[in-house]
Structures are given as structure tokens and as C-alpha cells.
Amino acid sequence: MLLNGESWILKRASLTPFKIALIDIQTSREWTYEQLSNETLKWLNILQKKGLSKGNRVAFLAENSIDFFPILFACGLGGYIFVPLNWRLSEKELIQIVEDCTPTLLLTDHKFEQLGNRIFQHTSNLSCSDEEKADYQSMNIESTDPWLMIYTGGTTGKPKGVVLSFDAVNCNALNTIVSWGLEPSDCTLNYMPLFHTGGINALAMPILMVGGTVVIGNKFHPEDAIRAVNHYKTTISLFVPTMYQGMIETEYFKQANFPTVKVFLSGGAPCPKTIYDHFTRKGLQFKEGYGLTEAGPNNFYIHPELAAKKKGSVGKSMMFNAVQIKNSEGEICTVNEVGELYIQGKHMFTKYWNNENETKNCIENGWLKTGDLAKMDEDGDIYIVGRKKDMIITGGENVYPQEVEQCIITHPQVKEVAVVGLSDSKWGEIVSAFIVSNNSTTNLTEEIFALCREHLGAYKVPKQIFFVDELPKTHVGKIDKKQLVERSV
Fold first, then answer.
1. Quick one: which of 228, 358, 389, 424 has the most CB atoms within 10 Å?
2. Which family would the database say this protein is a member of (predicted)?
């Protein structure tokens, strides 16, 4: 098994040279595996001519395109650490990240060339059409050496550089292929940003490893995305819930069939159960996954038929990783007891860059403390309850926002909802719901209160409801609850 893995893309190209590896929707470019291999070796030549040494960081600032992948693989071949930057951040935020990771080189596309020059002095454009391929010689690279560094979103504080080794990236890909049953015939559509682990490691790397096809979209538009699912004959694709919300509202989704699709995957945030129903009514399989930058991000498998019966469950841990749930006393939780989710496996990250204290705080006896709350049912299937930091303590009672949100979203007039705890002198925190609706009337407020009283314990019912035009989102489309709380202070 090739676990040091720096050259597996070249091996894949030798096995299936003429298979289409990558398709770029925006430019209509298609690369076979042989072409991807050639582009990778061109970039290796460029990076070697820059005088880079093993362990040097190569930062990357560009929108989604297939040009991302040969640079990622070239860094692997040369032993360099690839650092994709979130181009949606402010210039000040990008400077902070560049100062933290201290790259030797920053690569940008044409759009971000001027910004790149402002934030870092050693900046180059992506154009490499005239370069020759490098004569590749295998490097002395260990499986535990770093390959990729992804900065977290920073919604809980300063972004942290998550260092992923060859083991972490490759074991996640292999585990996904084996556990999910991926095949060379699989094709995935990716609109997830390629500075995010979901865009890189959820499906793109596993699909490329197994010899399938990865279709890269740039700017997400619901109508274009759902049409592309059929146009490119995709079989398995990942979107975040806010993307699905837009897609199911399109006329194309309502009218079209998706004959090549095996399953639609949702990740990045808890998915409203009402979204499942739109796919079920069309006879389409739909399920949720769970992951984080520090592990995978793929950790669980559930058969789509079971997912339809157990909405919200992510199933059981995959073949080559383990999970456990612990309560506040550090004991393994009993059935249906809520506790913190711990993960273990070779797909785990190595460390936070320049942040030894944070690394130690989230690793316990080889297990990653995820900061997410979960529970296990009688069958051993896992449900993600929510973020530990999002749990609301009101009058001494624990309220999990996701449970309240799943209740409120069932109202037909509710488009989106986020539940947070707002500070209160009497209760400590009060359950507060922020709702997007096309019909925000007094009657709707009363109907939502009645709905919650019918299905939830009294202490879980929101004490206040706010109607808003839209909910703030993070750079990867998750609802930003921290921003909601800050706005309400």
C-alpha cells in the first residue's frame, strides 16, 4: 500500500491515462489523468526552479478551478507544504495568515494578482504554459511529513493552520473509497471552495485516487448547480444545507429527474430534515455526513435507505477510524446520552501550525476532542446534536439549538432558522430564534410558538423570535451564529 503517497497521482495516470480526471465548468477545460500528470510535473519544475526546499510553504490564492490540483500534487512530489488561502477574507486577515505560515512563494490567479503583491513580496501568477515537465525523481518523503495546511474558518477566534500529513490526506481518501464504495465510474460535482477541506478532501481526492471524474464549479448559483448535476452525469456530490435550500426551490429541481445520481450528500452543518423530504418525494437518495478539518473530513458511513428512516443520523464510523462519545465526567456515554464526540485514526491532523497549546488542548490520549456534541442510539448509529459552544443553558437546563431548529423549520412558512442563546439576567441565557420567512406576520409568530410548545419541552421553547431578511453566513456557507449573537448584544 502506497502510504507515503507523494506519487500516487502519477501512478493513477499510468493506470488510466485517457480517463477524464478533471472538468472546469467555467472554462470548459477537461484534463485526462495523463494531462493532469503532465501539468503536475510542469509545476514541480517551476517550484524546483524557485529554489524551494522540503518543508517550505507554497501559498495559493485563487478562485475554484482545476489549476488547483496540479499545484497541490506538485507540492506533494517536492515535499512542499501547500497552503490554500481563503480569498473571501479581508486583506488584513490574509496578511495575518501569511505572517503565520511564512510561505516561500505565493501563487495567485489573475483576479488576485494585485492583492497577492500587496500581502506578500514573493508572488507569481498561475500561467505556466511554456514550462517543460520536470524529470521526476522520488523524494525522501515520509508518510508523516506535512503535505497540506488548511486554515480554519476562525468563527471561534483566530484562524488556525491545520497541518495534514500524507497519511492524513491519503488515509481519508482510502477510507472513503472502501467505506463508501467509490468506483472509477463515479463523478462528483464540487462547488465547495477549494480552500476548505470539504472541497479538497471530502470527495475530490478520493474520486481522483479511485480514478473517477471531478467537476469543478466556481461561483455557486442554485439553478446552474442543479442543472450541472445532470449535465455532467454526476453520481455523488456534496453540498452544504444552505446550497440545498436554494437548489430545491428551483423550477429545474422540481421538474427534473437525476438518473445517474446514486446519492446526494449534505455536510458542513446540520441539515434541516425538511430538505430530506424534497429528495424522498422524487425517489432520490439523500444523507448527511460529518467531518472537520482536523479529521478527514470523512468519518462516518450510513446507507442511504437507513438515512431516510433515521433522518439526521450519520451512521457508524468508517472502516479505518474510531469514534466515542464522552460525558462531562470523561465517561463513555450510555445509549442516547449526549456527550462530546471523540475521533481517532490516521486521517487526523498532525498539529496546529505555531500553536502548541491549542494542539495539546484538543488531543487526549491520541483521540481528537471535536467540540461537537453527539449521541448514539440502540443500534450504534450516531447523531450529531450540535456544537458544544452553541449549547444554551437556560435556568440550569441544557438546550441543544439543533433540536429547536429542526422543529421550527417544519413550519411551511419558514425558509431558514438559527437558534442561539442570548444573555439574560434572570435565566442566564434565553432561547432565541432568528427566522427567514416570506410571510413574517404576527400570526406566524404565534404559530411558531404553538408548534414549539406542541413538540418541545417548555424550557426549550424560544422566548423571543426575530424575523430577518437573511442569516449571516461563513465563507463556506454555514450559518454564522457568532455574528448573530454579536449583532444582538
1. 228
2. Belongs to the ATP-dependent AMP-binding enzyme family.
Phi, psi dihedral angles at 453 (to 5 degrees) = -65, -30
Is residue 483 classed as helix, strand or coil in its secondary structure?
helix
Write down the pLDDT at residue 371.
93
**Sign of torsion over alpha carbons 10, 12, 17, 23:** negative
Task: Please state, in angstroms and rounded to a whole number, the distance separating the CA atoms of residues 97 and 475.
Answer: 16
Domains of the chain, start order? 8-382 (3.40.50.12780), 391-488 (3.30.300.30)
Instruction: Tell me 125's DSSP state.
Output: E
Residue 6 pLDDT: 62
> Are the C-beta atoms of residues 141 and 79 closer than 8 Å to each other?
yes
C-alpha dihedral over 269, 270, 274, 275, to 10 degrees?
A: 40
Measured between alpha carbons, how far is 482 from 176 in angstroms, rounded to an integer? Answer: 32
CB neighbourhood size of 177 (10 A): 20
CB 347 within 8 A of CB 172: yes
Alpha-carbon torsion (220, 221, 226, 227), positive or negative: negative
* Distance (Å, whole) CA 184 – CA 187: 8
Question: Mean pLDDT over all residues of the chain?
Answer: 93
pLDDT tens for each residue of 223-282: 999 999 999 999 999 999 989 999 999 999 999 999 999 999 999 888 888 999 999 999
Pair 9, 206: CB distance under 8 Å: no
Query: In which order are the strands placed within the sheet that holds 123-125?
Result: 123-125, 105-108, 57-61, 81-84, 146-151, 161-165, 351-352
- Grid coordinates representing 111 are 483576479
Residue 266 to residues 52, 204, 242, 307, Cα–Cα distance (Å) = 39, 15, 10, 12
Model pLDDT, residue 351: 97
Which segments of the chain have a pLDDT < 70?
A: 1-6, 128-130, 153-157, 489
Rounded CA-CA distance 396/399 in Å is: 10
pTM tops 0.85: yes
Helix (H, G, I), strand (E, B) or coil at 339: strand
